[in-house]
Write a structure and sequence with these properties.
By secondary structure, the chain is α+β, with helices and mostly antiparallel strands. It has 2 domains: about 60 residues; about 100 residues, PH-domain like (Roll), CATH 2.30.29. The protein is built from 5 helices and 7 strands; from the N terminus they run αααββββαββαβ. The strands form 2 sheets. It has a 4-stranded mixed sheet. The relative contact order is 0.16.
Length: about 190
């Protein structure tokens, strides 16, 4: 799904790009991966010849339980990642950028273009490897050096890199801001 800003319908919400789903899934699948590692450790320990028979039975049972929990956690990760992905979006309205997020408690914020001071693109190494960017929008009300980007007016947590740069350019154009900043985090 390679969307560009030219194909976005004004007033309609746009998703963050297909790579964002895989980013959300990678975050949610970490717990499942730990159960897979445990299952493999229990299975390997069970097959060791120095393990007493009763302990081998326990290790085998623990390995099976960990495999079951792994598959259950993986299914939950797929479903919750899809819900998170579908709940995030942005809309380029006539007078403001609208950002929606949240599964259980839907939040929608509107940032008037006239208040936008900077639109930063942040890319950690893992995000660069996945072709993703994080957009942080700082407004005139947020112009405090002690303010960290976790408190910024608007944050799009993961977005396809091409879409992020196009959105940054469009927002700066609409906000009439002349400088573009990119922040790379290691």
């Amino acid at each position: 799904m390679n969307e560009s800003l030219s194909t976005i319908t004004p007033g309609a919400y746009t998703r963050l790009g297909s790579k964002a789903y895989w980013f959300f899934l990678s975050q949610k699948a970490e717990a499942a991966a730990s159960f897979l590692v445990l299952a493999l450790v229990f299975t390997a320990a069970r097959s060791m010849s120095a393990v007493p028979k009763q302990a081998a039975v326990f290790l085998g049972l623990a390995g099976v339980v960990c495999f079951i929990v792994f598959f259950a956690a993986l299914i939950v990760a797929f479903i919750s990642s899809l819900l998170v992905y579908k709940s995030h979006g942005y809309c380029l309205a006539d007078d403001a950028l609208k950002i929606k997020s949240g599964i259980w408690s839907q939040q929608e914020i509107a940032i008037p273009y006239r208040q936008i001071q900077t639109v930063d693109i942040e890319r950690k190494l893992s995000e660069r490897m996945m072709g993703l960017s994080r957009i942080v929008i700082v407004t005139a009300a947020e112009d405090n050096p002690a303010t960290d980007h976790n408190e910024a007016e608007g944050v799009l947590p993961a977005m396809d890199d091409v879409m992020a740069h196009q959105l940054q350019e469009e927002l700066l154009k609409r906000a009439d801001v002349q400088k573009v900043f990119q922040v790379n985090k290691a």
